[in-house]
Amino acid sequence: MKKLRSLLWRALLVAIGLVLLYQVWLFAHICWWVKFNPSTSAFMENRLAIMQDKNPNAELRYKWVPYENISNDLKRALIAAEDARFVDHEGFDWEGIQKAYEKNMKKGRIVAGGSTISQQLAKNLFLSTKRTPWRKLEEAAITVMLEAVMDKRRIFEIYLNVIEWGNGVFGAEAAARHYYSTGAANLTAEQAAMLAAMVPNPRYYDTHREARGLLLKTDFILSRMSDAEIP
To answer: N or C: which terminus of the chain carries fewer CB neighbours within 10 A?
Structure first.
């Protein structure tokens, strides 16, 4: 019994050590990305693997562009749509989380989320698509790291460049060219609002661009863009 207990303690210490090493690995990547741009993300690699299962020659449409080369209208549209308090919170919008919880409880199912832009970026950069309690805890830890190391402008710049905007379409530049045959710098307010409205379900809207819900949400985002504060 004593030997078994000793083995269990050693296994526990090894597990804790591995978890800590993984956190250090995550933190090192985040520190590197303060100055250097990520070339891919966990979510991009996952989508590419799925696409290549069907077509081995499939490729992602993705091109990094600097923050200043992305339309301010798109920045305002995304903040209005996804995280109105982005410039003020420290990674978590507790009021938004509470409202989402109350809405979900009222409906009896998940119809709203309270994830901030920082949380979405944490998930896209590092985590799998599986929804588990462990993933939510890791997402929170990565969010804290992002907010501790990067300023809001850098967090938003990376977010704008790595989020999904269609089947194999990632980042503002690829999205602008895919949907409007223009660059991310040249997007109009209406185009920006439409792209922001697509974010929750981009692959569906890629093939349903006239969906009533998408058009209604686009108009709603347009009405809120003037109040959005960008970093």
So the answer is: N
Amino acid in the structure at residue 155: I
**pLDDT tens column, 96-151:** 667 755 565 555 544 445 689 999 999 999 987 667 777 888 999 999 999 999 99
Nearest CA-CA partner of 167 in 130, 131, 134, 205: 205
Q: Are residues 83 and 102 in the same domain?
A: yes
Taking the model in full, what pTM does it have? 0.89
Q: What is the tally of helices (H) and strands (E) in the chain?
A: 11, 3
- Backbone phi, psi, residue 62, to 5°: -160, 130
Q: Are residues 108 and 217 in the same domain?
A: yes
Q: Are residues 223 and 118 in the same domain?
A: yes
Question: What is the number of domains present in the chain?
Answer: 2
Residue, of 9 and 129, whose pLDDT is higher = 9
Smallest CA-to-CA distance from 91 within 26, 141, 144 is with 144
Query: In 3D, which of 117, 121, 120 has the Cα closest to residue 80?
Result: 117
